[in-house]
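tool_call: predict_structure(chain=1)
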Amino acid sequence: MFNFTKYSKIYFSIALILALASIFSLIFFGLNLGMDFKGGTSVKVEYEKKAPKIEDVKKNLNIESYEIQSFGDKGIILKIKNKNIQADEYNKILKELEVSDNKIADSELQTISPVVGSELKNKTIIVAIVALIAMLLYIAFAFKQVSGPISSFQYGLVSTLMLFNDILIPLGVLAFLGKYYGVEFTIPIVTAILAVIGYSINNNIVIFDRIRENLRLNAKLSYTEVVNKSLNQVVVRCVNTSLTTLFVLISLYYFFMGEGGIEYFALTASIGIIIGTFSSVFLSSPILAKWAEKKE
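tool_result:
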């Protein structure tokens, strides 16, 4: 049986380094907010034939601060940040979007004002905070009858701290990628982060539930011994579940590489699931074990 808590200082050190690096990245680089949050213009076109490759379309474009992605077999969406397009500019862009003899059959123009983008940004922050608080209350309620030296509130608190960590590190990576590779923070990325919150809390619940069961069945064992036993019983399940999800996300990333939204959704979710699995197995329960040791 592997002794998870024996090496807890190493896990905590790794987590601290990653968290500090992410905070540094967010403070000094900041998130490269996309059109969804800053406002701008979206141009959706449908071609007569199959849509050209994104790389070929980019060669024709003479605009700055844009994001382009395909939809369906014949469509492309072009998002231009911080700019409202006039009629003459719109017609020019449509000509630039035509590749070789592949003409545009239909087009649609949509504008997002900076005010709407700002409201969306505020709502995103509120949703993330509400989700974290809801998870804390849910865990505290679900484990209110657990026996042992750890209270239900502590289960909820450590879960919330780990969820915050699971969000912080992907955001730090995105800030770095935004600074050096122009990756934009968009709605699909927000969706990925919220999905990571739900995924990570599921792993925590599985582990905590096994700890609760083992506390009842093994009253003579110390809390740290119960934690180690529980982790050994569920670690394979947690890792296998994460791997199966990662396989899907890696496939999404590979097949939609260069197409913006889905590509970075898959990347963000992948980072979050890896960090979330690490947090659930190597951080959450060992932290509880340390708190229990101080009480004893």
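agent: Residues 235 and 253 are 26 Å apart (CA to CA). Proceeding to next step.
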